[in-house]
Amino acid sequence: MMRGRSDGAQNRRLLTSVCVGAVFVVFLYVYFDSKNAGESALEYGSRSLRKLGSSYLSGDLDDGEDGIVPKSFPVCDDRHSELIPCLDRHLIYQMRLKLDLSLMEHYERHCPLPERRYNCLIPPPPGYKIPIKWPKSRDEVWKVNIPHTHLAHEKSDQNWMVVKGDKINFPGGGTHFHYGAGKYIASMANMLNFSKNNLNNEGRLRTVLDVGCGVASFGAYLLKSNIIAMSLAPNDVHQNQIQFALERGIPAFLGVLGTKRLPYPSRSFELAHCSRCRIDWLQRDGLLLLELDRLLRPGGYFAYSSPEAYAQDEEDLRIWREMSALVERMCWRIAAKRNQTVIWQKPLTNDCYLEREPGTHPPMCRSDDDPDAVWGVPMEACITPYSDHDHKTRGSGLAPWPARLTSPPQRLADFGYSSEMFEKDTEIWRRRVESYWNLLSPKISLDTLRNIMDMKANLGSFAAALKDKDVWVMNVIPEDGPKTLKIVYDRGLIGTTHNWCEAFSTYPRTYDLLHAWTLFSDIEKKGCSGEDLLLEMDRILRPTGFIIIQDKQSVIEFVKKYLSALHWEAVATADSSSEPDQEGDEVVFVIQKKLWLTSESFRDTE
Protein backbone atom coordinates (compact mmCIF):
# COMPACT_ATOMS: atom_id res chain seq x y z
CA MET A 1 0.00 0.00 0.00
CA MET A 2 2.69 2.44 1.04
CA ARG A 3 4.84 1.66 -1.97
CA GLY A 4 1.85 1.82 -4.17
CA ARG A 5 0.93 5.23 -2.83
CA SER A 6 4.53 6.27 -3.09
CA ASP A 7 4.69 5.15 -6.76
CA GLY A 8 1.43 6.89 -7.51
CA ALA A 9 2.61 10.11 -5.91
CA GLN A 10 5.85 9.93 -7.83
CA ASN A 11 3.98 9.42 -11.08
CA ARG A 12 1.70 12.31 -10.26
CA ARG A 13 4.70 14.52 -9.49
CA LEU A 14 6.33 13.50 -12.77
CA LEU A 15 3.14 14.20 -14.70
CA THR A 16 2.77 17.55 -12.98
CA SER A 17 6.35 18.48 -13.83
CA VAL A 18 5.86 17.53 -17.45
CA CYS A 19 2.65 19.59 -17.67
CA VAL A 20 4.27 22.60 -16.03
CA GLY A 21 7.23 22.32 -18.36
CA ALA A 22 4.98 22.07 -21.38
CA VAL A 23 2.94 25.09 -20.29
CA PHE A 24 6.15 27.03 -19.72
CA VAL A 25 7.47 26.17 -23.20
CA VAL A 26 4.14 27.18 -24.76
CA PHE A 27 4.20 30.41 -22.74
CA LEU A 28 7.71 31.24 -23.97
CA TYR A 29 6.72 30.51 -27.55
CA VAL A 30 3.58 32.64 -27.37
CA TYR A 31 5.32 35.41 -25.47
CA PHE A 32 8.27 35.80 -27.79
CA ASP A 33 6.18 35.26 -30.88
CA SER A 34 3.71 37.94 -29.81
CA LYS A 35 6.55 40.16 -28.67
CA ASN A 36 8.22 39.88 -32.05
CA ALA A 37 4.92 40.45 -33.76
CA GLY A 38 4.31 43.48 -31.56
CA GLU A 39 7.69 44.92 -32.36
CA SER A 40 7.70 44.23 -36.06
CA ALA A 41 4.04 44.31 -36.97
CA LEU A 42 1.95 46.11 -34.38
CA GLU A 43 3.91 49.33 -33.99
CA TYR A 44 5.41 51.59 -36.60
CA GLY A 45 8.16 52.93 -34.46
CA SER A 46 9.94 49.84 -33.26
CA ARG A 47 13.69 49.73 -33.58
CA SER A 48 13.74 47.03 -36.27
CA LEU A 49 11.18 48.75 -38.47
CA ARG A 50 12.75 52.15 -38.11
CA LYS A 51 16.09 50.77 -39.27
CA LEU A 52 14.37 48.94 -42.08
CA GLY A 53 12.68 52.10 -43.21
CA SER A 54 15.65 54.38 -42.86
CA SER A 55 18.31 52.27 -44.52
CA TYR A 56 16.65 50.80 -47.57
CA LEU A 57 18.02 53.27 -50.10
CA SER A 58 21.56 52.37 -49.21
CA GLY A 59 20.88 48.85 -50.40
CA ASP A 60 21.93 47.36 -47.06
CA LEU A 61 18.85 45.28 -46.42
CA ASP A 62 19.93 41.80 -45.46
CA ASP A 63 18.57 38.70 -43.84
CA GLY A 64 19.77 39.79 -40.45
CA GLU A 65 17.49 40.25 -37.49
CA ASP A 66 16.98 43.95 -38.16
CA GLY A 67 16.52 43.59 -41.90
CA ILE A 68 13.75 41.02 -42.24
CA VAL A 69 10.94 42.00 -44.56
CA PRO A 70 7.61 40.77 -43.19
CA LYS A 71 5.86 38.02 -45.12
CA SER A 72 2.55 39.51 -44.03
CA PHE A 73 1.08 42.29 -41.94
CA PRO A 74 -1.67 41.55 -39.45
CA VAL A 75 -5.13 42.97 -40.07
CA CYS A 76 -6.21 45.72 -37.70
CA ASP A 77 -9.24 45.09 -35.55
CA ASP A 78 -12.55 45.81 -37.34
CA ARG A 79 -13.13 48.82 -35.09
CA HIS A 80 -10.21 50.51 -36.87
CA SER A 81 -11.78 50.22 -40.33
CA GLU A 82 -12.20 54.01 -40.42
CA LEU A 83 -8.98 54.92 -38.60
CA ILE A 84 -7.49 58.37 -39.24
CA PRO A 85 -4.32 58.21 -37.15
CA CYS A 86 -3.79 61.96 -36.71
CA LEU A 87 -7.48 62.70 -36.11
CA ASP A 88 -8.19 59.85 -33.72
CA ARG A 89 -10.25 60.95 -30.72
CA HIS A 90 -9.44 57.73 -28.87
CA LEU A 91 -5.75 58.65 -29.09
CA ILE A 92 -6.50 62.09 -27.63
CA TYR A 93 -8.24 60.46 -24.67
CA GLN A 94 -5.41 57.97 -24.17
CA MET A 95 -2.71 60.63 -24.33
CA ARG A 96 -4.70 62.87 -21.98
CA LEU A 97 -3.98 65.91 -24.07
CA LYS A 98 -5.12 69.15 -22.47
CA LEU A 99 -7.01 70.74 -25.34
CA ASP A 100 -9.36 73.71 -25.40
CA LEU A 101 -12.61 72.31 -26.77
CA SER A 102 -14.03 75.80 -27.30
CA LEU A 103 -11.21 76.48 -29.77
CA MET A 104 -11.79 73.18 -31.63
CA GLU A 105 -8.31 71.96 -30.79
CA HIS A 106 -9.66 68.41 -30.41
CA TYR A 107 -10.54 68.45 -34.14
CA GLU A 108 -7.03 69.53 -35.18
CA ARG A 109 -4.22 67.12 -36.03
CA HIS A 110 -2.64 65.22 -33.12
CA CYS A 111 -0.45 62.45 -34.44
CA PRO A 112 0.60 59.38 -32.44
CA LEU A 113 4.18 59.01 -31.35
CA PRO A 114 6.11 56.32 -33.26
CA GLU A 115 5.66 53.76 -30.49
CA ARG A 116 1.87 54.24 -30.54
CA ARG A 117 1.34 53.88 -34.29
CA TYR A 118 -0.48 50.94 -35.77
CA ASN A 119 1.41 48.67 -38.11
CA CYS A 120 -1.42 46.68 -39.58
CA LEU A 121 -3.66 46.68 -42.64
CA ILE A 122 -6.91 48.63 -42.26
CA PRO A 123 -9.81 46.29 -43.05
CA PRO A 124 -12.76 47.41 -45.16
CA PRO A 125 -16.16 47.05 -43.51
CA PRO A 126 -17.86 43.65 -43.90
CA GLY A 127 -19.45 43.26 -47.31
CA TYR A 128 -17.49 46.14 -48.84
CA LYS A 129 -18.19 46.73 -52.54
CA ILE A 130 -16.18 48.48 -55.22
CA PRO A 131 -17.52 52.07 -55.16
CA ILE A 132 -20.11 53.18 -57.69
CA LYS A 133 -18.45 54.99 -60.59
CA TRP A 134 -18.58 58.70 -61.34
CA PRO A 135 -20.81 60.50 -62.34
CA LYS A 136 -23.45 58.14 -60.93
CA SER A 137 -21.64 58.22 -57.58
CA ARG A 138 -22.50 61.89 -57.14
CA ASP A 139 -26.05 60.83 -56.32
CA GLU A 140 -25.65 57.41 -54.69
CA VAL A 141 -23.17 55.21 -52.83
CA TRP A 142 -23.25 51.71 -51.38
CA LYS A 143 -24.54 51.80 -47.80
CA VAL A 144 -22.29 48.90 -46.82
CA ASN A 145 -19.16 50.95 -47.66
CA ILE A 146 -20.06 53.66 -45.13
CA PRO A 147 -22.56 52.01 -42.81
CA HIS A 148 -23.62 55.22 -41.05
CA THR A 149 -27.15 56.44 -41.56
CA HIS A 150 -27.60 58.81 -38.61
CA LEU A 151 -27.17 61.87 -40.86
CA ALA A 152 -30.04 60.64 -43.01
CA HIS A 153 -32.29 60.73 -39.94
CA GLU A 154 -30.83 63.86 -38.35
CA LYS A 155 -31.05 65.87 -41.61
CA SER A 156 -34.15 64.18 -43.02
CA ASP A 157 -35.93 67.52 -43.47
CA GLN A 158 -32.97 69.05 -45.32
CA ASN A 159 -32.41 66.46 -48.08
CA TRP A 160 -28.78 65.79 -47.21
CA MET A 161 -29.08 62.05 -47.78
CA VAL A 162 -31.74 59.36 -47.94
CA VAL A 163 -31.37 55.62 -47.29
CA LYS A 164 -32.91 53.55 -50.08
CA GLY A 165 -32.39 49.81 -49.82
CA ASP A 166 -28.71 48.94 -50.13
CA LYS A 167 -27.75 52.46 -51.19
CA ILE A 168 -27.61 55.95 -49.75
CA ASN A 169 -28.93 58.64 -52.10
CA PHE A 170 -27.96 62.30 -52.13
CA PRO A 171 -30.77 64.56 -53.41
CA GLY A 172 -28.47 67.60 -53.39
CA GLY A 173 -30.01 69.39 -50.45
CA GLY A 174 -28.38 71.25 -47.61
CA THR A 175 -29.26 73.07 -44.42
CA HIS A 176 -29.99 76.30 -46.32
CA PHE A 177 -30.80 74.85 -49.74
CA HIS A 178 -33.41 72.18 -49.10
CA TYR A 179 -34.54 72.32 -52.73
CA GLY A 180 -31.15 71.54 -54.18
CA ALA A 181 -27.65 72.98 -54.47
CA GLY A 182 -28.12 73.69 -58.20
CA LYS A 183 -30.85 76.29 -57.65
CA TYR A 184 -28.96 77.78 -54.73
CA ILE A 185 -25.79 78.21 -56.81
CA ALA A 186 -27.73 79.81 -59.67
CA SER A 187 -29.35 82.18 -57.16
CA MET A 188 -25.92 83.27 -55.90
CA ALA A 189 -24.77 83.94 -59.47
CA ASN A 190 -27.92 85.99 -60.05
CA MET A 191 -27.26 88.01 -56.91
CA LEU A 192 -23.82 88.92 -58.29
CA ASN A 193 -25.20 89.67 -61.77
CA PHE A 194 -22.97 87.06 -63.38
CA SER A 195 -23.66 86.18 -67.00
CA LYS A 196 -26.28 83.45 -67.60
CA ASN A 197 -26.59 82.92 -63.83
CA ASN A 198 -23.36 80.92 -64.01
CA LEU A 199 -21.27 81.31 -60.89
CA ASN A 200 -18.02 80.72 -62.76
CA ASN A 201 -18.34 84.28 -64.13
CA GLU A 202 -16.98 83.36 -67.56
CA GLY A 203 -14.07 81.44 -66.06
CA ARG A 204 -12.99 84.10 -63.58
CA LEU A 205 -14.33 82.24 -60.54
CA ARG A 206 -12.69 78.82 -60.38
CA THR A 207 -11.55 77.81 -56.85
CA VAL A 208 -13.92 77.73 -53.87
CA LEU A 209 -13.52 76.93 -50.17
CA ASP A 210 -16.69 75.44 -48.69
CA VAL A 211 -16.42 75.64 -44.89
CA GLY A 212 -18.56 73.21 -42.92
CA CYS A 213 -19.53 71.49 -46.13
CA GLY A 214 -21.70 68.65 -44.85
CA VAL A 215 -21.70 65.86 -47.45
CA ALA A 216 -20.35 68.33 -50.05
CA SER A 217 -23.40 68.65 -52.29
CA PHE A 218 -22.56 72.34 -52.83
CA GLY A 219 -19.15 71.34 -54.21
CA ALA A 220 -20.70 68.49 -56.20
CA TYR A 221 -23.02 70.79 -58.10
CA LEU A 222 -20.33 73.45 -58.65
CA LEU A 223 -18.44 70.97 -60.84
CA LYS A 224 -21.06 71.40 -63.60
CA SER A 225 -19.97 75.03 -63.81
CA ASN A 226 -16.25 74.18 -64.11
CA ILE A 227 -15.72 75.30 -60.51
CA ILE A 228 -13.74 73.13 -58.12
CA ALA A 229 -14.33 73.41 -54.38
CA MET A 230 -12.21 72.33 -51.46
CA SER A 231 -15.04 71.00 -49.29
CA LEU A 232 -13.85 71.25 -45.69
CA ALA A 233 -15.30 69.82 -42.49
CA PRO A 234 -13.97 68.35 -39.25
CA ASN A 235 -14.44 64.83 -37.98
CA ASP A 236 -17.11 66.13 -35.58
CA VAL A 237 -20.62 65.16 -34.48
CA HIS A 238 -21.54 64.86 -38.16
CA GLN A 239 -19.13 61.97 -38.43
CA ASN A 240 -18.26 60.59 -41.85
CA GLN A 241 -19.49 63.61 -43.83
CA ILE A 242 -16.12 63.94 -45.58
CA GLN A 243 -16.00 60.18 -46.07
CA PHE A 244 -19.37 60.38 -47.82
CA ALA A 245 -18.09 63.25 -50.00
CA LEU A 246 -15.01 61.32 -51.12
CA GLU A 247 -17.01 58.13 -51.67
CA ARG A 248 -19.20 60.23 -53.99
CA GLY A 249 -16.11 61.34 -55.95
CA ILE A 250 -16.22 64.95 -54.73
CA PRO A 251 -13.05 66.85 -53.69
CA ALA A 252 -13.04 67.08 -49.88
CA PHE A 253 -10.67 67.38 -46.94
CA LEU A 254 -10.79 66.89 -43.18
CA GLY A 255 -9.94 70.13 -41.42
CA VAL A 256 -11.23 72.73 -39.01
CA LEU A 257 -11.01 76.43 -38.34
CA GLY A 258 -9.46 76.08 -34.91
CA THR A 259 -6.13 77.54 -33.82
CA LYS A 260 -3.84 76.67 -36.75
CA ARG A 261 -3.87 78.08 -40.25
CA LEU A 262 -5.61 75.92 -42.81
CA PRO A 263 -2.99 74.13 -44.97
CA TYR A 264 -3.57 76.36 -48.00
CA PRO A 265 -1.53 79.34 -49.19
CA SER A 266 -2.69 82.94 -49.23
CA ARG A 267 -4.88 84.21 -52.07
CA SER A 268 -5.99 80.73 -53.16
CA PHE A 269 -9.78 81.02 -53.50
CA GLU A 270 -12.14 83.27 -55.44
CA LEU A 271 -15.02 82.37 -53.14
CA ALA A 272 -15.42 81.13 -49.58
CA HIS A 273 -18.80 79.73 -48.60
CA CYS A 274 -20.50 79.00 -45.28
CA SER A 275 -24.05 77.68 -45.27
CA ARG A 276 -25.20 77.35 -41.67
CA CYS A 277 -21.70 76.17 -40.79
CA ARG A 278 -22.18 76.92 -37.08
CA ILE A 279 -18.98 78.92 -36.75
CA ASP A 280 -18.70 81.84 -34.34
CA TRP A 281 -17.01 84.33 -36.65
CA LEU A 282 -16.74 86.98 -33.93
CA GLN A 283 -14.60 84.98 -31.52
CA ARG A 284 -10.98 85.90 -30.78
CA ASP A 285 -11.18 89.32 -32.45
CA GLY A 286 -12.49 87.86 -35.70
CA LEU A 287 -9.57 85.42 -36.00
CA LEU A 288 -11.46 82.87 -38.12
CA LEU A 289 -12.85 85.46 -40.50
CA LEU A 290 -9.36 86.86 -40.89
CA GLU A 291 -8.15 83.39 -41.85
CA LEU A 292 -10.70 83.43 -44.68
CA ASP A 293 -9.41 86.88 -45.61
CA ARG A 294 -5.90 85.46 -45.90
CA LEU A 295 -7.16 82.73 -48.23
CA LEU A 296 -9.30 84.91 -50.51
CA ARG A 297 -7.91 86.44 -53.65
CA PRO A 298 -8.13 90.20 -54.31
CA GLY A 299 -11.79 90.90 -54.99
CA GLY A 300 -12.78 87.46 -53.65
CA TYR A 301 -16.20 86.77 -52.16
CA PHE A 302 -17.52 85.32 -48.91
CA ALA A 303 -21.05 83.93 -49.26
CA TYR A 304 -22.72 83.55 -45.87
CA SER A 305 -26.10 81.85 -45.49
CA SER A 306 -27.17 81.91 -41.87
CA PRO A 307 -29.97 83.17 -39.60
CA GLU A 308 -27.86 86.19 -38.66
CA ALA A 309 -28.23 87.41 -42.24
CA TYR A 310 -32.03 87.65 -42.09
CA ALA A 311 -33.53 86.76 -38.67
CA GLN A 312 -34.98 89.49 -36.50
CA ASP A 313 -34.63 88.14 -32.96
CA GLU A 314 -32.44 90.10 -30.59
CA GLU A 315 -29.46 87.72 -30.52
CA ASP A 316 -29.25 87.34 -34.30
CA LEU A 317 -29.51 91.10 -34.74
CA ARG A 318 -26.67 91.62 -32.26
CA ILE A 319 -24.44 89.13 -34.10
CA TRP A 320 -25.30 90.75 -37.44
CA ARG A 321 -24.41 94.24 -36.18
CA GLU A 322 -21.08 93.11 -34.73
CA MET A 323 -20.19 91.03 -37.77
CA SER A 324 -21.06 93.89 -40.12
CA ALA A 325 -18.85 96.22 -38.12
CA LEU A 326 -15.98 93.71 -38.18
CA VAL A 327 -16.03 93.14 -41.94
CA GLU A 328 -16.30 96.89 -42.52
CA ARG A 329 -13.07 97.39 -40.55
CA MET A 330 -11.60 94.59 -42.70
CA CYS A 331 -12.52 96.68 -45.76
CA TRP A 332 -15.04 94.15 -47.06
CA ARG A 333 -18.19 95.48 -48.70
CA ILE A 334 -21.59 93.91 -49.23
CA ALA A 335 -21.73 92.82 -52.86
CA ALA A 336 -25.27 91.42 -52.56
CA LYS A 337 -27.84 90.49 -49.91
CA ARG A 338 -31.04 88.56 -50.48
CA ASN A 339 -33.25 86.62 -48.10
CA GLN A 340 -31.01 84.31 -46.09
CA THR A 341 -27.73 85.02 -47.89
CA VAL A 342 -25.25 87.88 -47.80
CA ILE A 343 -22.18 88.01 -50.08
CA TRP A 344 -19.26 90.19 -49.02
CA GLN A 345 -16.37 91.13 -51.29
CA LYS A 346 -12.74 91.65 -50.37
CA PRO A 347 -11.01 94.79 -51.74
CA LEU A 348 -8.90 94.69 -54.90
CA THR A 349 -6.14 96.95 -53.56
CA ASN A 350 -4.55 98.23 -50.35
CA ASP A 351 -6.26 101.63 -50.64
CA CYS A 352 -8.89 100.98 -47.97
CA TYR A 353 -6.33 99.55 -45.56
CA LEU A 354 -4.19 102.68 -45.93
CA GLU A 355 -7.19 104.90 -45.20
CA ARG A 356 -8.11 103.28 -41.89
CA GLU A 357 -7.70 105.26 -38.68
CA PRO A 358 -4.54 104.47 -36.68
CA GLY A 359 -5.15 101.78 -34.08
CA THR A 360 -8.05 100.23 -35.98
CA HIS A 361 -8.62 96.57 -35.22
CA PRO A 362 -7.91 94.12 -36.67
CA PRO A 363 -4.40 95.44 -37.36
CA MET A 364 -2.33 94.81 -40.46
CA CYS A 365 0.00 91.81 -40.21
CA ARG A 366 3.67 92.36 -39.45
CA SER A 367 5.92 92.87 -42.44
CA ASP A 368 7.86 89.69 -41.55
CA ASP A 369 4.73 87.51 -41.47
CA ASP A 370 4.73 84.92 -44.24
CA PRO A 371 1.10 84.37 -45.26
CA ASP A 372 2.07 81.19 -47.11
CA ALA A 373 3.65 79.50 -44.07
CA VAL A 374 0.86 77.18 -42.99
CA TRP A 375 2.07 73.84 -41.59
CA GLY A 376 1.40 73.98 -37.85
CA VAL A 377 1.44 77.79 -37.88
CA PRO A 378 -1.01 79.52 -35.51
CA MET A 379 -3.58 81.84 -37.04
CA GLU A 380 -3.00 85.55 -36.66
CA ALA A 381 -5.75 88.09 -35.97
CA CYS A 382 -4.45 90.48 -38.60
CA ILE A 383 -5.03 91.52 -42.20
CA THR A 384 -2.56 90.40 -44.86
CA PRO A 385 -1.89 93.30 -47.25
CA TYR A 386 -1.25 92.83 -50.95
CA SER A 387 2.19 93.06 -52.47
CA ASP A 388 3.05 96.20 -54.39
CA HIS A 389 2.62 94.26 -57.61
CA ASP A 390 -0.87 92.99 -56.71
CA HIS A 391 -1.84 96.43 -55.46
CA LYS A 392 -0.88 98.03 -58.78
CA THR A 393 -2.48 95.35 -60.96
CA ARG A 394 -5.75 95.50 -58.95
CA GLY A 395 -6.26 91.78 -58.72
CA SER A 396 -4.63 88.42 -59.15
CA GLY A 397 -3.97 88.85 -62.87
CA LEU A 398 -4.96 85.24 -63.55
CA ALA A 399 -6.32 84.11 -66.88
CA PRO A 400 -9.90 82.76 -66.96
CA TRP A 401 -10.40 79.01 -66.75
CA PRO A 402 -9.43 76.84 -68.65
CA ALA A 403 -6.60 79.01 -70.06
CA ARG A 404 -5.48 79.49 -66.47
CA LEU A 405 -4.33 75.86 -66.32
CA THR A 406 -1.45 76.36 -68.75
CA SER A 407 -0.80 80.10 -68.40
CA PRO A 408 2.32 80.95 -66.36
CA PRO A 409 1.05 82.70 -63.19
CA GLN A 410 2.69 85.83 -61.85
CA ARG A 411 3.68 84.20 -58.57
CA LEU A 412 6.22 82.02 -60.41
CA ALA A 413 8.60 84.91 -59.83
CA ASP A 414 8.48 84.18 -56.07
CA PHE A 415 10.53 81.06 -56.81
CA GLY A 416 12.73 82.50 -59.52
CA TYR A 417 10.95 80.39 -62.14
CA SER A 418 10.55 81.71 -65.67
CA SER A 419 7.63 81.19 -68.01
CA GLU A 420 9.87 78.94 -70.09
CA MET A 421 10.61 76.71 -67.08
CA PHE A 422 6.88 76.48 -66.33
CA GLU A 423 6.02 75.55 -69.90
CA LYS A 424 8.82 72.99 -70.03
CA ASP A 425 7.61 71.40 -66.78
CA THR A 426 4.08 71.24 -68.17
CA GLU A 427 5.29 69.48 -71.32
CA ILE A 428 7.48 66.99 -69.42
CA TRP A 429 4.56 65.92 -67.28
CA ARG A 430 2.23 65.73 -70.27
CA ARG A 431 4.60 63.12 -71.73
CA ARG A 432 5.00 61.30 -68.43
CA VAL A 433 1.26 61.05 -67.85
CA GLU A 434 0.76 59.78 -71.38
CA SER A 435 3.34 57.09 -70.62
CA TYR A 436 1.70 56.29 -67.28
CA TRP A 437 -1.67 55.79 -68.94
CA ASN A 438 -0.15 53.48 -71.53
CA LEU A 439 1.07 51.32 -68.66
CA LEU A 440 -2.32 51.46 -66.93
CA SER A 441 -4.44 50.95 -70.03
CA PRO A 442 -4.72 47.13 -69.83
CA LYS A 443 -6.21 47.52 -66.34
CA ILE A 444 -8.48 50.57 -66.53
CA SER A 445 -11.46 51.90 -68.46
CA LEU A 446 -12.75 55.46 -68.80
CA ASP A 447 -14.54 55.41 -65.43
CA THR A 448 -12.07 53.37 -63.36
CA LEU A 449 -10.39 56.38 -61.74
CA ARG A 450 -11.95 59.41 -60.10
CA ASN A 451 -10.13 60.50 -56.90
CA ILE A 452 -6.41 60.95 -57.56
CA MET A 453 -3.64 62.18 -55.28
CA ASP A 454 -0.31 63.57 -56.44
CA MET A 455 1.76 63.06 -53.30
CA LYS A 456 4.51 65.47 -54.40
CA ALA A 457 2.89 67.86 -56.84
CA ASN A 458 5.58 70.53 -57.37
CA LEU A 459 3.92 72.92 -59.87
CA GLY A 460 0.82 70.80 -60.44
CA SER A 461 1.77 69.72 -63.95
CA PHE A 462 0.83 66.08 -63.32
CA ALA A 463 -2.74 67.20 -62.56
CA ALA A 464 -2.73 69.63 -65.48
CA ALA A 465 -1.92 66.75 -67.83
CA LEU A 466 -5.16 65.02 -66.72
CA LYS A 467 -7.40 67.92 -67.79
CA ASP A 468 -9.25 65.86 -70.41
CA LYS A 469 -10.03 62.98 -68.04
CA ASP A 470 -13.04 62.89 -65.72
CA VAL A 471 -10.92 62.97 -62.57
CA TRP A 472 -9.88 65.42 -59.88
CA VAL A 473 -6.48 65.61 -58.20
CA MET A 474 -5.50 66.41 -54.62
CA ASN A 475 -2.11 68.07 -55.15
CA VAL A 476 0.07 67.63 -52.06
CA ILE A 477 3.11 69.82 -51.45
CA PRO A 478 5.66 68.73 -48.81
CA GLU A 479 5.73 71.12 -45.87
CA ASP A 480 9.52 71.48 -45.86
CA GLY A 481 10.04 72.28 -49.55
CA PRO A 482 9.32 75.27 -51.79
CA LYS A 483 5.81 76.59 -51.11
CA THR A 484 4.65 75.95 -54.65
CA LEU A 485 1.08 75.14 -53.63
CA LYS A 486 0.12 78.72 -54.53
CA ILE A 487 1.19 77.97 -58.11
CA VAL A 488 -1.11 74.93 -58.05
CA TYR A 489 -4.02 77.13 -56.98
CA ASP A 490 -3.11 79.82 -59.49
CA ARG A 491 -3.54 77.16 -62.19
CA GLY A 492 -7.13 76.57 -61.06
CA LEU A 493 -6.29 73.34 -59.22
CA ILE A 494 -6.57 72.44 -55.55
CA GLY A 495 -4.32 70.80 -53.00
CA THR A 496 -2.88 70.88 -49.52
CA THR A 497 0.38 70.96 -47.57
CA HIS A 498 1.53 67.83 -45.76
CA ASN A 499 4.42 66.06 -44.03
CA TRP A 500 4.60 62.48 -45.31
CA CYS A 501 6.33 61.33 -42.13
CA GLU A 502 2.80 61.53 -40.70
CA ALA A 503 -0.60 60.17 -41.70
CA PHE A 504 -2.72 62.17 -44.16
CA SER A 505 -5.99 63.79 -43.06
CA THR A 506 -8.38 61.50 -44.86
CA TYR A 507 -10.42 58.38 -44.24
CA PRO A 508 -9.25 54.95 -45.37
CA ARG A 509 -10.14 53.84 -48.90
CA THR A 510 -10.68 57.32 -50.36
CA TYR A 511 -8.38 57.52 -53.43
CA ASP A 512 -8.30 55.50 -56.66
CA LEU A 513 -4.73 56.37 -57.65
CA LEU A 514 -1.68 57.62 -55.76
CA HIS A 515 1.25 59.16 -57.63
CA ALA A 516 4.58 59.27 -55.79
CA TRP A 517 7.39 60.97 -57.71
CA THR A 518 10.73 60.68 -55.83
CA LEU A 519 8.76 60.80 -52.56
CA PHE A 520 10.47 57.78 -51.00
CA SER A 521 13.89 59.29 -51.71
CA ASP A 522 12.78 62.48 -49.99
CA ILE A 523 11.48 60.92 -46.80
CA GLU A 524 14.57 58.74 -46.53
CA LYS A 525 16.65 61.91 -46.39
CA LYS A 526 14.44 63.10 -43.53
CA GLY A 527 15.06 59.87 -41.60
CA CYS A 528 11.46 58.68 -41.87
CA SER A 529 10.34 55.12 -42.50
CA GLY A 530 9.58 53.88 -45.98
CA GLU A 531 7.55 51.06 -44.47
CA ASP A 532 5.39 53.58 -42.61
CA LEU A 533 4.71 55.35 -45.88
CA LEU A 534 3.74 52.13 -47.65
CA LEU A 535 1.24 51.30 -44.91
CA GLU A 536 -0.19 54.81 -45.07
CA MET A 537 -0.57 54.56 -48.84
CA ASP A 538 -2.40 51.26 -48.36
CA ARG A 539 -4.73 52.92 -45.84
CA ILE A 540 -5.59 55.76 -48.24
CA LEU A 541 -5.97 53.63 -51.35
CA ARG A 542 -9.24 52.00 -52.35
CA PRO A 543 -9.26 48.24 -52.97
CA THR A 544 -8.37 47.63 -56.66
CA GLY A 545 -6.80 51.12 -56.73
CA PHE A 546 -3.43 51.91 -58.29
CA ILE A 547 -0.09 53.38 -57.24
CA ILE A 548 2.45 54.91 -59.61
CA ILE A 549 5.93 55.27 -58.12
CA GLN A 550 8.68 57.02 -60.06
CA ASP A 551 11.93 56.88 -58.14
CA LYS A 552 15.38 55.34 -57.97
CA GLN A 553 15.87 51.66 -58.75
CA SER A 554 16.78 50.98 -55.12
CA VAL A 555 13.42 52.38 -54.04
CA ILE A 556 11.56 50.17 -56.49
CA GLU A 557 13.43 47.12 -55.23
CA PHE A 558 12.53 48.05 -51.66
CA VAL A 559 8.83 48.40 -52.52
CA LYS A 560 8.80 45.08 -54.36
CA LYS A 561 9.84 43.31 -51.16
CA TYR A 562 6.55 44.38 -49.57
CA LEU A 563 4.08 43.57 -52.35
CA SER A 564 3.05 40.24 -50.88
CA ALA A 565 2.78 41.56 -47.32
CA LEU A 566 0.56 44.44 -48.47
CA HIS A 567 -1.49 42.29 -50.85
CA TRP A 568 -0.45 44.43 -53.79
CA GLU A 569 0.54 43.17 -57.21
CA ALA A 570 2.92 44.58 -59.79
CA VAL A 571 1.25 45.82 -62.97
CA ALA A 572 4.12 47.27 -64.98
CA THR A 573 7.66 48.59 -64.81
CA ALA A 574 9.27 51.07 -67.19
CA ASP A 575 12.58 52.88 -67.52
CA SER A 576 12.30 56.68 -67.53
CA SER A 577 15.88 57.33 -68.67
CA SER A 578 14.67 58.35 -72.12
CA GLU A 579 12.93 61.44 -70.71
CA PRO A 580 14.48 64.82 -71.53
CA ASP A 581 16.72 66.18 -68.77
CA GLN A 582 16.15 63.04 -66.74
CA GLU A 583 18.51 62.81 -63.79
CA GLY A 584 19.66 59.56 -62.23
CA ASP A 585 18.19 56.12 -62.77
CA GLU A 586 14.49 56.72 -62.13
CA VAL A 587 12.13 53.83 -62.77
CA VAL A 588 8.34 53.86 -63.10
CA PHE A 589 6.59 51.14 -61.12
CA VAL A 590 2.81 50.61 -61.34
CA ILE A 591 1.05 48.64 -58.61
CA GLN A 592 -2.54 47.55 -57.97
CA LYS A 593 -4.06 46.89 -54.55
CA LYS A 594 -5.99 43.65 -54.28
CA LEU A 595 -9.51 43.46 -52.88
CA TRP A 596 -10.12 41.53 -49.70
CA LEU A 597 -13.57 41.90 -48.28
CA THR A 598 -13.45 41.73 -44.50
CA SER A 599 -10.90 41.06 -41.82
CA GLU A 600 -12.63 37.77 -40.99
CA SER A 601 -12.75 36.55 -44.56
CA PHE A 602 -9.17 37.71 -45.04
CA ARG A 603 -7.90 35.83 -41.99
CA ASP A 604 -9.73 32.73 -43.16
CA THR A 605 -7.70 32.76 -46.37
CA GLU A 606 -4.39 32.95 -44.58
Automatic annotation (TrEMBL):
One Gene Ontology term of the biological-process aspect is: methylation
**Bilayer topology:** Single-pass type II membrane protein
| Any single Pfam family the record assigns to this protein | Methyltransf_29
- GO cellular component entries: endosome; Golgi membrane; trans-Golgi network
Transmembrane region(s): 12-32
Keyword list, A-Z: Glycoprotein, Membrane, Methyltransferase, Signal-anchor, Transferase, Transmembrane, Transmembrane helix
Keyword Methyltransferase attached: yes
Indicate the segments annotated as coiled coil, or none if absent. none
> Its Enzyme Commission number?
2.1.1.-
Name its cellular compartments: Golgi apparatus membrane; Membrane
The record's family statement is: Belongs to the methyltransferase superfamily.
**Protein name per the record:** Methyltransferase
Identify the species of origin: Fraxinus pennsylvanica
